Give the backbone structure.
Amino acid sequence: MRELVLYALRMGSERIILGDCRGDEVGELLRAMSNGYSGSLLNVYATSPRASLTHLETMALANGVQPAVKLLRTQLAGALQVIVYLARLQDGTRKVLNILEVQGFDGVSLKLQSIFHFRNAGFDAPSGKVEGDFEASGFSPTFLSRFEASSIRLAAEMFTCPQSSYAQSPQNRV
């Protein structure tokens, strides 16, 4: 897989999509992404958004990338912009539970900010389905200026939190 990533980079591919990151290809892709190569998407299996970052760190360190942890986290912060976290719910369905922005590295950990989240409204026993809504967390992502530079305009209302108490609560900052 690592060699395929390297060949794709050498060919000047505009997009690289890795369906399942498990090894040393992570280091090559992170290096490319942190050096300005945009248009990458990767899939990592983890139990939470924070765990996905830890998993990427572990794979990079275990497969030949040997920078200091702070340097690796700085590289991750520069390479990653958005985490889309999906999980299997108790009814067996998979749902997007959170969309988060990677806001940087504070010297200790990567800073994440939830942009959208799934609000679980409970389990409907008759239908056997988990009910809930996907809603804004009340924060506008900092990368919106890059979208606008690419002529992608998003309405500011889509980031408005329906319950202002969610946005004010410090526990909702991941």
Observations:
- The two ends are 31 Å apart (CA to CA).
